[in-house]
Structures are given as structure tokens and as C-alpha cells.
Amino acid sequence: MVPTPITVRVPAKVNLHLAVGDPRPDGYHELITVFQAVSMTDEVTVLVADEPGIDVHGEGADSVPTGPSNLAWKAVRLLAERSERDPEEPGVRLSISKGIPVAGGMAGGSADAAAALLALNHLWRLELGRDELCDIAAQLGSDVPFALQGGTALGTGRGERLVPVLARHTFHWVIALDRRGLETPTVFGELDRLREESKPNRVGEVEPLLEALASGDPRQLALLLGNDLQAAAVSLRPGLRRTLRAGVQAGALAGIVSGSGPTCAFLCTDADSAVRVAAELSGAGVCRTVRVAQGPVPGARIVSDDRAD
Ligand code: C5P
């Protein structure tokens, strides 16, 4: 019997704190970061098919590669290898429905890879535990383990070593999407360049932010949001300065570039305020589109599995 397709829903992330260290010999930068999963999601369906491949739907689908460079497809190949299947002929198709901005600094590609791992684990009945899946996820990309885990987490190393963070409260965000994406390696490279040229400010210690998260007070948290990549993203895309200003003028407590950008995330006092800020920001003409989101939300999870067992 052909197994029923499996659909996994997976969230985007914002980095509430992103401290970037010096480049390592392997080209990666040592990070101390706090991720929060937010309620913007992709859905990835895996189904058994003779003709392997990827279909992508939704916003920005045209700019998602459907060949071997797609990170979700790399996830299929890696898991096929691990389970002694032919990675060239894995016998599955992926259907990706995008709700997370493409190349937006919200880890959309990583989210799809995490979703593919979880879905295939079920479709192929591999019975890999969370820890094993996280190890495989880390081989695919620095942000992939967090997309599996979700919630709020402290990430170290490349960002792949995770410890959950206490955040009992819901925070309300307005997310401003830019017209074009930014490539993550370019933004890290720009930060290295800026640091050779001058001494851009670095974010402080992470502990006060962890305390603010535990307290649940968005005003306290707003004062502590920080991202070392922001200077680099703004240097590459100077218009982001205007977007960040406009969000605060619209009533947000604080704004920050999300990860490597160019998406900006604005923290608001509550859900009503977020709706007002979103309306005003979308009228300001500083970004392509505006969304309201909340966090933390859970990581990748199966939303359809019709098998009887
Ligand atoms: O891990 P991932 O493949 O998602 O990273 C994409 C790129 O971002 C890396 O090739 C590297 O240029 C940059 N990066 C980095 N340091 C990190 C994470 C990512 O320099 N900790």
C-alpha cells in the first residue's frame, strides 16, 4: 500500500539577540543567539512518487530553487543515505507551500529542511528520535535544528547548539518584508569588512535579555533586542534604516533586523498594538508587505497523518 502523504508545518524565526564572533577557520562565525519561533509558517508535504522532485507554491515561490541546491532536497538526500536508500532515486516528491519570506533572514529554507526531515522520518518509518534528527539537521545548516525545536532557545556554536529558554509569555510582533532578499554569506562578509574598517558596536551580554524573556515584559525585552548583523544588513540595504524608524514611529516598542535581514521585526506591547502598528507601517510605503505574528510557537510538527496506526 502506498503510504499517505505527510504534511509538516514549520515556523519562521527571529533572533532577539545575535552576537557574532570572529570568523572561524571553517568560514563560519561563532554565535551567541536567542531564537524565537514566530507564527509565520511553511507547510511541507512529502509523498511517494516515481518522479522525484520539488514543487513550490506561495509567496516568493519563483525564487526558490527546485534543483539539488534546495536545502529541503538536501535533507531528503541525507536521510535517504542514512537509511540506505538511493539518494538519486529517493522515490519521493516534496511540495512546499511558502508563508515564510524567501531570503528574508527568517530561516525559511532551513525551516523547509527541518520539515522534510520530520516528514520523511514518519513516511519512511525511520523512528529517529529528536536528538538524532537534530544532529542530522545541524549537518544541513546552522538554523535547521532550531526549526525542529521551535519555542525560544539560546543557540551557540554556529547557532546549532540549542538550549531551551524560559519564555512563558506571548510576544507580539510586526514583521516588515522587503522587496528583495539578502544572501546570508554576503551579510556575514559585510560585517567582517565593516569590522576591519571601523569598530561597529557589538551587542552586550545575553543574560539581561534572558531575564526579560522570563519576566514576560515586552517593554523590558524591547530595550535589550540586539543584532550584530544589523549594521551589515543596513550597510548593504540603506533603506532599512527608514523601515526601522517607521516601525517605531508607528508605535512599536523597538525594531530589529531579523537575522541577516532584510526582514525587520518590531516588538509591540500587545496584539491590538501590533495590528495598529502593522496598518500604519503598511501605509508608510517603506516595505513590500507587513505581517502580524506572535511568538513563541512550537517547532516543526505533523499536521496530517491519516494512517490508521
Ligand atoms: O549554516 P548555513 O548554511 O545556513 O549558513 C549559511 C552561511 O551563512 C554560511 O555559509 C556562512 O557564510 C554564514 N554563516 C556564518 N556563521 C554562522 C552561520 C552562518 O558565517 N554561524
TrEMBL record:
Binding site for ATP: P101, V102, A103, G104, G105, M106, A107, G108, G109, S110, A111
Cross-referenced Pfam families: GHMP_kinases_C, GHMP_kinases_N
Limits of the GHMP kinase C-terminal domain: 209-284
Residues at the catalytic site: K13, D143
InterPro entries, alphabetized: GHMP_kinase_C_dom, GHMP_kinase_C_sf, GHMP_kinase_N_dom, IspE, Ribosomal_Su5_D2-typ_SF, Ribsml_uS5_D2-typ_fold_subgr
Name of the top EC class for this enzyme: transferase
Molecular function GO terms recorded: 4-(cytidine 5'-diphospho)-2-C-methyl-D-erythritol kinase activity
TM regions (residue ranges): none
Lineage top rank: taxon: Bacteria
Reaction(s) this enzyme catalyzes, per UniProt: 4-CDP-2-C-methyl-D-erythritol + ATP = 4-CDP-2-C-methyl-D-erythritol 2-phosphate + ADP + H(+)
Keyword annotations from UniProtKB, A to Z: ATP-binding, Isoprene biosynthesis, Kinase, Nucleotide-binding, Transferase
EC number: 2.7.1.148
Residues covered by the GHMP kinase N-terminal domain: 70-151
Pathway membership, UniProt: Isoprenoid biosynthesis; isopentenyl diphosphate biosynthesis via DXP pathway; isopentenyl diphosphate from 1-deoxy-D-xylulose 5-phosphate: step 3/6
Its biological purpose: Catalyzes the phosphorylation of the position 2 hydroxy group of 4-diphosphocytidyl-2C-methyl-D-erythritol.
Family stated for the protein in its record: Belongs to the GHMP kinase family. IspE subfamily.
Alphabetized NCBIfam families for the sequence: ispE (TIGR00154), PRK03188.1 (NF002870)
HAMAP family noted in UniProt: IspE
Protein's name in the database: 4-diphosphocytidyl-2-C-methyl-D-erythritol kinase
Source organism (scientific name): Saccharopolyspora rosea
Lineage: Bacteria, Bacillati, Actinomycetota, Actinomycetes, Pseudonocardiales
